[in-house]
Amino acid sequence: MSRATGNITLGPGLVARRSSATASSLSLNSTSLGGGVGVMAIGNAETAPANTPSGGGVLYATGGALHWKGSDGTVTELAPA
Known about the structure:
Blueprint: E1 8-11, E2 14-18, E3 24-28, E4 40-42, E5 57-62, E6 65-70, E7 75-79
Parallel strand pairs: 3-4
Antiparallel strand pairs: 1-2, 2-3, 5-6, 6-7
């Protein structure tokens, strides 16, 4: 944790950021919050999931679009870039 910024590094590429005294932001594999406060940023996946997850799904971004790959193998684009 950085005392100066209030940022907490939770792991490589995963940072919880204190944006203001009352709001925090979360970034996953991204350093840009686009100027937002109280937002979540998801960077593009280095590799999209090739295998089918079991018992749930995988949320990821490619080309700025948000995707979900479910346990039946279906990939759904939730939001275009």
